[in-house]
Amino acid sequence: MSTIDVKNANTVEVGYDEFCGALAAHDLQALWSLQRKIMPDTPIPATQPWLWKWDTIFPLAKRAGELITIERGGDRRVLALANPGLHGLPFTSTTLWGAIQYLGPGETAPAHRHNPSAIRFVMTGSGVYTTVDGDACEMQPGDLILTPNWMWHDHNNYGDEPMVWFDGLDLPLLVNLETIFFENHPDLQQPVRGHGLSEQLHAGPGLAPAGEDRDPLNSPLLRYRWENTERELEELLRLRGGSEATVEFLNTANGGPAIRTFACQMTRLLPGARTPTRRATGSSVHVVFQGSGRSVIDGTVFEWGPGDIFVVPSWAPVDHEAGEQSDHFVLSDRPVLEAFRLYKREKLPDRQEVRGVFEPR
Amino acid sequence: MSTIDVKNANTVEVGYDEFCGALAAHDLQALWSLQRKIMPDTPIPATQPWLWKWDTIFPLAKRAGELITIERGGDRRVLALANPGLHGLPFTSTTLWGAIQYLGPGETAPAHRHNPSAIRFVMTGSGVYTTVDGDACEMQPGDLILTPNWMWHDHNNYGDEPMVWFDGLDLPLLVNLETIFFENHPDLQQPVRGHGLSEQLHAGPGLAPAGEDRDPLNSPLLRYRWENTERELEELLRLRGGSEATVEFLNTANGGPAIRTFACQMTRLLPGARTPTRRATGSSVHVVFQGSGRSVIDGTVFEWGPGDIFVVPSWAPVDHEAGEQSDHFVLSDRPVLEAFRLYKREKLPDRQEVRGVFEPR
Amino acid sequence: MSTIDVKNANTVEVGYDEFCGALAAHDLQALWSLQRKIMPDTPIPATQPWLWKWDTIFPLAKRAGELITIERGGDRRVLALANPGLHGLPFTSTTLWGAIQYLGPGETAPAHRHNPSAIRFVMTGSGVYTTVDGDACEMQPGDLILTPNWMWHDHNNYGDEPMVWFDGLDLPLLVNLETIFFENHPDLQQPVRGHGLSEQLHAGPGLAPAGEDRDPLNSPLLRYRWENTERELEELLRLRGGSEATVEFLNTANGGPAIRTFACQMTRLLPGARTPTRRATGSSVHVVFQGSGRSVIDGTVFEWGPGDIFVVPSWAPVDHEAGEQSDHFVLSDRPVLEAFRLYKREKLPDRQEVRGVFEPR
Amino acid sequence: MSTIDVKNANTVEVGYDEFCGALAAHDLQALWSLQRKIMPDTPIPATQPWLWKWDTIFPLAKRAGELITIERGGDRRVLALANPGLHGLPFTSTTLWGAIQYLGPGETAPAHRHNPSAIRFVMTGSGVYTTVDGDACEMQPGDLILTPNWMWHDHNNYGDEPMVWFDGLDLPLLVNLETIFFENHPDLQQPVRGHGLSEQLHAGPGLAPAGEDRDPLNSPLLRYRWENTERELEELLRLRGGSEATVEFLNTANGGPAIRTFACQMTRLLPGARTPTRRATGSSVHVVFQGSGRSVIDGTVFEWGPGDIFVVPSWAPVDHEAGEQSDHFVLSDRPVLEAFRLYKREKLPDRQEVRGVFEPR
After folding, report:
1. Which B-chain residues 329-358 have CB contacts (< 8 A) with chain D?
2. Which residue of A343, A344, B320, C357 is surrounded by the most CB atoms within 10 Å?
3. For the sheet containing A194-195, what is the strand order?
4. What's the domain count of chain D?
């Protein structure tokens, strides 16, 4: 059996410059010249803190509704929030896809499925349901709808006004894992088995049909209604006091995250509340559902109001301050980091020094 | 409390071209123009199947040994295997860092730690130990040495010949998660508590000190000796027959992977063995430790011999054929995919049609 | 170091009878004489199938209410359902304690705690709350109330009628594990932090306060209301059809059983429904909440009506037949068996041959 | 649907004595009269601290070898260590079966299987193997052999001296769970697939055949050799210092206990070592493999030497003192308690007051 040979190795009698050229020619790179860049002392994210204004994105989404029809080949009328730090990629952070989807009256976004998982957080509108593996889930503002890994889904607007929702996907993560699968449904709309099935069987607190799989790939509950979320926020503030409350959306079968690859939360800040400065590994996207205020991210001030969306990069110091009472829907990649014990979070002792104010464009 | 407003939205009376310009100006991208690219039916990896020849990399590593000294600021004499599909990044696949490290007689690669985890698979040489959190682990050809997440490590050559090993890291994954932490040790070498401590306490089969943490971040065993690996391969072939055997390296505390973020395996093929054609999600790097043969990856033939290293991209069909008896050390990202139930593997019914032969450069 | 010695062993020159006497004298028993008894081919439970009639137990419980006052030293007015197969032990099966508790108007069962966990299933009455670690849980007929391992609890009747509930405990299991701890609270009643706290924070479907322990010892939800249970039963029957539906009560934090050591279920049978004949390892106690019918257990017919309670031993074939629509609350030790992979369940192909009718006494 | 009726309940106009009689007649027991007995403040085990002397049990085992033949119907020549606190049951504690098995030259204990799991700890002898699902495991003094849940096993003495080993089973636990299954093999001896198969594939430290089940019901390693155990004890003492070391026997596939329902440990005490006084919930059986000394259990002194076996009840204070260097094999039910978070362990501040000395009988 032949073994690794060091005796008869060629000699390469070259100077440093030629040596570097030889490396490049043979698809090699010298670590010593790039170590500090790829191994910094603390994270140096490419993801930039950024904010998209509702006043900018909604008119464009509406205009898209006039210009673009939805049909096979261009299934979704979606505007992706492309972080300017990511070299032109249509991703909001290196792990999270955030986007605005616009569905006009009478429109149907056709049925398909993919192994990236998605959530839909409804921002405005009415008269829409998303069918997920045959279960038609009504969508109301503030609702969270799951369309998990490989489940068929189509969106249907049977009302008379457009709906706009926030799409969150783990697509960038799966792109990086080079593991995307996608399939179109043979029909525009999949057959509907019923309306609100997942809520009928899985919204009973602590109740489940006997004998059910206790560790399913996805949460059996597919719709989380705003009225429940809001009640929970109110109870938390009433019972625990303070000026900040956060609710997490969970898989009703096993208490894990509603979607395995990201965390979904809703945070309420009371008027005037200012959070401590914190930082955590992993990125998060904030969708301002109600209220207005400002956040300081890594020294830059971001002013926000209803419908605005902003992203907080990994390990960036951040604090939030509510002018009026405010509700943020927050999507993050925390469970991915936790799976490998890479999640770190800390509270910083001091307020950040403000070094600038973000100018939305 | 202010809420999302759709009534007073500005109107954007622009044509399609202007509309597209407006999107770009506001950091938005239209999904309908890029959906098929980011959501293909099956994975289209950027990672290319590729092979680096020992005859090429060893002389360059040796020359680096003459040209580059190891000291603070350039800690490691490492040549990264840079996949040509990855736009100049020094990564072997989108999740795996593969590299060759060269350490000359009398040299010490100084102590540091980082949260990317690493394995070292020894290719050739003697007289070296790696100290991991105070435990000096001897390195012999065929050994696997772990330097897990955030453990101090330095490499020391006290012998009279150089050593070359393969470095495998989850660095690309952590770069994408934007979660790298790094620290230099105050001293060139960390203090040594003992030699082979992890083997003394954790190489007793099914034995562990009572009361020990049963779910540690990392395997308490840090060195997996070639003699044990080879014996296990021989037993497997003897007891189960066939012409192919694969051993997996595990965390002795909980039976999980030795390192949480990747799988390490050693595969032996008997002379003339040809594996079925398989494909799996996720990428893998093969280090040919002994023997020679060829692999067909996605229709291209790759000839390999001792010391050669090649990479198999996600979902690429692959089969291996051994000329003489061959041992491959294989590093893959399978546990990352499994954590999110994204791992898929299948055997293909037919041999691949060969469309070309890889020409190493 | 001295080692086991076989050379200098005494010789015992005795005949078989003397030998047997010698064994007994030295606290030894010969396996060969008892193997078939302790190692039968299939389970031979000591637990007998048995039934207690409401018409018998309620008048006695009521009379106890007249004869026995509740005070320190005799904390609870509880009648234990003592299985006649268990040699006088006050246990319903070898793992489950089932009992009837009676609390008159104005009475308080004083605060204490113990590591046996308990559930309370309310049979009749109103105007009572159980305080569990400061959380006052109202009790209504059909409700399930948890008083888990080591949580303070007292029961308080502030109404004008008595309440009767079923107590289920894992006490026999813990007696056998010889692991009981008990403590009286310094006061008759513990301080009340609030009313319905667990419901306010943990009855939002798929919602929980962020950052909460996801694997607590006990379910954070302490009260499971009958109205929710009944709605879930109705939905199950509506959506899945059939004439039998079973709901399981779960730990809202992790999807495990509401109490770690037993399973709680509610089964509804439609009028005329007859279940297949099944058997499972482990025992269960059925509390008939509504309706009437009969069950065949190991060949014996048990007629039941509202308030009756019966026990099904391990591996006994059983089928149930509802005359009118019927709801059974069922307590079993299934999670204990599952923890050690000792749970087996099967459907038998044939109806049981009826060999007798149970005569309640 | 008929519901629970309290209106038409019969009145029971009886005095206290008659009332008590009525309870008994209807299979009811009043909790208030028995609460302190079944709910003590701390565990009051029925299991007594007890010790069986090698000098007593070995001659009786040997005599059994002369008087009793091994054949179908009396499969095993086993003397059970029957705790005098357990009302004549042949159990060493309420959860553990401890016994001595004697197998003479040329004898075979026929093949059978049962869902109680067993371990064999070899005390003396040679020339024996136990076949476990076709894998012939050699037995040497100090070895631990597993015959887990439902695996076929027969014992075969092909040598010229008798062997004596300690049998440990979870039989009492399964008796209490009323879940015993047993089956005789059609043949006296099952077919042998090979010798030492489990060691050949699973004794490589941190190595396993790829693709193997990582959460099997039982450890894939069936024999734990004394030489490995002793080496681990020596290393532990050398590396960690102190005068006491304990090694635990684990499932090589997942790091859990070698057998799910009990913990197996080997403890070495150096000459003169005296442990702190500790107590823990759950019971344990100590088999003195080598050395001599004394233990104080709940105030009583137990002197022990090679081959002696003693039992420590739940929550009993215990400390051990080695005269000469001593090795104890210790079997306990700890994993059962841990599964339900009932395991508690503490170190007591003071030495126990000695109240008596155990007189073996």
Report:
1. none
2. B320
3. A182-184, A108-114, A153-157, A128-132, A135-139, A194-195
4. 2
